[in-house]
Automatic annotation (TrEMBL):
Catalytic activity entry: L-threonine + hydrogencarbonate + ATP = L-threonylcarbamoyladenylate + diphosphate + H2O
Keyword annotations of the record: ATP-binding, Cytoplasm, Nucleotide-binding, Nucleotidyltransferase, Transferase, tRNA processing
YrdC-like domain segment(s): 92-282
Species this chain originates from: Chlamydomonas schloesseri
Protein's name in the database: Threonylcarbamoyl-AMP synthase
GO biological process terms, semicolon-separated: regulation of translational fidelity; tRNA processing
Domain of life: Eukaryota
Major enzyme class: transferase
């Protein structure tokens, strides 16, 4: 069955003027699918979707006969709504093109609500092999399997299989959505997907294009994020084109910006106690209320495990992740999760080891406004130091692959296989707001040293979470004075929003100081610390925008390590070459 339901309405359209008009990046085709983002089903559509095979029966006749084994035979409201929208997309020519490629064993980049994925038939070793090749992904890092219905999941198992009870209510209520769960490996899923593990990771994406495509294929899709391995995940189709265009993959489906912006939460409900292996679009707080998840732990926040740490199966532990070309300095709010004594991390290397629990306090100390003020002062202090360093001409060459700084604390080295090119070590700078005179900030010598080391060549990028009322996207900031006195809090000067798609900087002038303003600073507003989900939505786009603008270094203001901020800080620590606690 291919999900060719006759349903009313057509909520999608290709780019006007052509039946199947695409933009070509060399030999990679980009097809746009515009979506009516109102996911409310029209009257009668839920029933039509359910009976069409896009909902509980999307896996076809075989799956339909197993419908119910997964523990939720019917469609709940969210699943019905998503299925209805997907049904409206089922006959879209771009989706038909993508389904044909996937059926033929090719790979296609697809939008999901979290990030863009690079999809292939999850039941074909050969197809999945093309995903690893296109991304240059390490062969021992398993993929997530994407389904469009619980019946499609059930169809992967022998008759009589039942969903583990811990997931029954959870998946009925949280799918489709940014939640991946570990399940016992299906005998139908090849080693190429699971890398030989006894478990497999599965999710049902909420993006209607992804749902419609999976249903149209009639088989599940294995899909990692559609970036080159190690790069920030893509949240726009053009991010995918930047990494994998030019013929590396045949087709990118453009379904607009990803609303969530960080990847799915990876939940291991098979272990005891259950654990979040990768924080993501669904928070711990949203999960703990479900039966069996009361004692839910978060990996690296509530516990660490040496075996997990060494394995690629703990998402993102072993490999360099989320890194733009420019070195990233993370300003991390103190009081947030950072296991002592090695508080900072370098590209995923753990700051603690062993299997013992290493709980730490979470959350910001003080209000969001206090935190924002601390971040602003720290950013200004670092910018002042960098400006002064530039003015004096004494900066050292930017050396992203330089060894540990003299001030580095006892950082745990990344495993040899993960030795990140360009990943600097940890610096132990401490930006101390406490006790500092109003309007100024004291920087420990290591942080000052850090700033001066990294201030050479190209604009300085800043990802901001501390500016209240600023719209997300690139800003062009002019500072009042060329080089404010060291330690003084610089005024913010004029801020003009340059748009959130990362193109304003490129359009605004040549790379370098002309783009960045008088002091060569380019800023990108992610959102405000008080709204970490907004920050998550802009995070990867911001990293990529500043990288594209040719920034020599990127300062990133963090958020509190709680709620939606946990996923943000998880990604930022992995992207960071240096962490400075503020
Ligand atoms: O939101 C997402 O999850 C996106 C979209 C495209 O769905 N996908 C994504 O895939 O982030 P990827 O490959 O970038 O990250 C998947 C993570 C990997 O770090 C992998 O180690 C982990 O999931 N994983 C896959 N199978 C696993 C398993 N059986 N046990 C533990 N971890 C697993
Ligand atoms: Mg990824």
């Amino acid at each position: 069955m291919t999900g060719t339901a006759e349903v009313p309405g057509q909520a999608a359209s290709v780019v006007p003027g052509s039946e199947l008009q695409g933009r070509s990046a060399a030999t990679t085709e980009i097809l746009t699918v515009s979506i009516d983002l109102d996911l409310e089903p029209r009257r009668g559509e839920s029933e039509a979707a359910a009976s069409s095979g896009l909902g509980a029966g999307a896996a076809g006749d075989a799956a339909a006969s197993t419908s119910g084994r997964a523990g939720a035979a019917g469609l709940d409201g969210a699943q019905a709504a998503a299925a209805a929208t997907a049904a409206r997309l089922a006959r879209h020519p771009a989706i038909a093109r993508a389904a044909a490629l996937l059926t033929g064993g090719q790979v296609v980049a697809i939008p999901t609500e979290t990030v863009y994925g690079l999809a292939a038939n999850a039941l074909s070793s050969e197809a999945v092999g093309r995903v690893y090749a296109a991304k240059n992904r390490p062969p021992d890092n398993p993929l997530i399997i994407h389904v469009s219905s619980l019946a499609m999941l059930a169809a992967l198992y022998p008759p009589g299989w039942a969903l583990p009870p811990i997931y029954t209510q959870l998946l009925a209520e949280r799918w489709p959505g940014p939640l991946t769960v570990l399940l016992p490996r299906s005998p139908r899923v090849p080693d190429a997907v699971t890398c030989g593990l006894p478990t497999m990771a599965v999710r049902m994406p909420a993006h209607p294009v992804a749902l419609a495509l999976i249903a149209a294929c009639g088989f599940p899709l294995a899909a990692p994020s559609a970036n080159s391995s190690g790069r920030p995940s893509p949240t726009l189709a053009r991010h995918v084109a930047a990494d994998l265009g030019g013929g590396a993959i045949p087709l990118i489906l453009d379904g607009g910006p990803c609303s969530c912006g960080v990847e799915s939460t990876v939940l291991d409900g098979l272990r005891s106690p259950p654990a979040i292996l990768r924080p993501g679009g669904v928070t711990r707080e949203e999960l703990v209320g479900y039966p069996g998840l009361e004692g839910l732990q978060v990996y690296r926040k509530d516990f660490t495990d040496a075996a997990l740490e060494a394995a690629p199966t703990t998402p993102g532990m072993k490999y360099r992740h989320y890194s733009p070309t420019a070195p990233v300095i993370l300003l991390e709010p103190s009081g947030a999760c950072s296991p002592a004594p090695a508080a900072a991390t370098a590209n995923g290397a753990s700051g603690s080891s062993g299997s013992s629990s290493s709980s730490s306090s979470s959350g910001s100390s003080g209000s969001a406004e206090d935190l924002a003020a601390r971040l602003r002062r720290a950013t200004e202090a670092l910018l002042v130091e960098m400006a002064a360093t530039r003015a004096s001409g004494r900066q050292g060459a930017l050396a992203p692959s330089s060894g540990p700084t003299e001030a580095a604390p006892a950082a745990v080295a990344a495993p040899a296989a993960a030795a990140p090119q360009g990943a600097g070590p940890v610096a132990g700078g401490k930006v101390a707001a406490a006790g500092a005179p109003a309007g100024s900030v004291a920087l420990d010598p290591p942080a000052l040293e850090l700033a001066s080391q990294l201030a050479g060549g190209g604009p300085i990028g800043v990802l901001r979470t501390s500016l209240a009322g600023a719209a997300p996207g690139l800003v062009h900031r002019r500072r009042a004075a060329a080089v404010p006195a060291a330690g003084a809090a610089a005024g913010l000067g004029d801020i003009c929003n340059g748009g959130s798609d990362g193109q304003a900087a490129a359009a605004g002038g040549p790379k370098g100081s002309a783009v960045g303003g008088d002091d060569g600073v380019i800023e990108y507003v992610l959102g405000h610390v008080s709204r970490p989900a907004d920050v998550a939505a802009e995070l990867f786009a911001g990293l990529r925008a500043l990288d594209e603008a040719g920034c020599a270094v990127i300062l990133v203001e963090g958020v509190a390590d709680e709620g939606a901020g946990v996923a943000v800080m998880n990604r930022l620590r992995k992207a960071a070459s240096r962490v400075v606690h503020v």
